[in-house]
Amino acid sequence: MLAAARHSAILDAVHAEGIVKVADLAQRLGVSTVTIRRDIDALSDSGLLTRVHGGVMAPSEGGSHEPGFALKSTQNLEAKEAIAREAASLVAEDMAVGITAGSTTWVLAKALAAGPRITVLTNSVRAMEAFDASPSGSTVLLTGGQRTPSDALVGPLATASVRRLHLDVLFLGVHGMDERAGFTTPNLLEAETNQAFAATARRVVVVADHSKWGVQGIGSICGFDDVDALVTDGAMPAHALGILTERIPTVRVAP
């Protein structure tokens, strides 16, 4: 296979899967890992890819770049649905449940809307709408606040609303998770509002697919050590799972 064809195949794989291991690419393309690493170096030098430990991912946006909800809601949908099913199993009737904004938490909200009766506090208009036709009669409390491109309500009004209440469990959506930076967002006001959410909850559960690994936003929400659980998908790289399981008490990989 010519180098140009390999480069195209590598880019297609990264676009479809988010993060791809060097060994997997070598096996798929029938070449050595040395050849794949040489291809990755060329693509990385051109700004088309970002190297990570043992693999490669799409180039990272700037730390303050905030993609819109419409785009995020179409990405890695199968993984997000698997995560949502796994996370929904943690909820029982009459719980007070927090749901922050995001595309994964929106999919989770749709799953919870079909489940037991609960009380939901959210800063996501999309999550609130998911409960409109809920057969369980769940109660949904929506914070006020300034709306971001990712459809989060943030700022002083949202933060003040959250701080007055107490949650049994919070499902926290994040923009990125990084070994040094922890869980982050590209929006500083959203970071503050999410911190308030986490402070009110007995249990904090992050819901994030594999594409969030190695991504870093400008605003820090919390460290790995500050959450009780992470629900992710099976495409998360093994080395990342090793880091996460060392620092987070419970890591659940959705089947």
TrEMBL record:
Keyword terms of this UniProt record: DNA-binding, Transcription, Transcription regulation
Sequence ranges assigned to domain HTH deoR-type in this UniProt record: 3-58
Name listed for the protein in its UniProt record: DeoR family transcriptional regulator
Cross-referenced Gene3D superfamilies: 3.40.50.1360, Winged helix-like DNA-binding domain superfamily/Winged helix DNA-binding domain
SMART domains: DeoRC, HTH_DEOR
Pfam families tied to this protein: DeoRC (PF00455), HTH_DeoR (PF08220)
Superkingdom per UniProt: Bacteria
Upper classification of the organism: Bacteria, Bacillati, Actinomycetota, Actinomycetes, Micrococcales
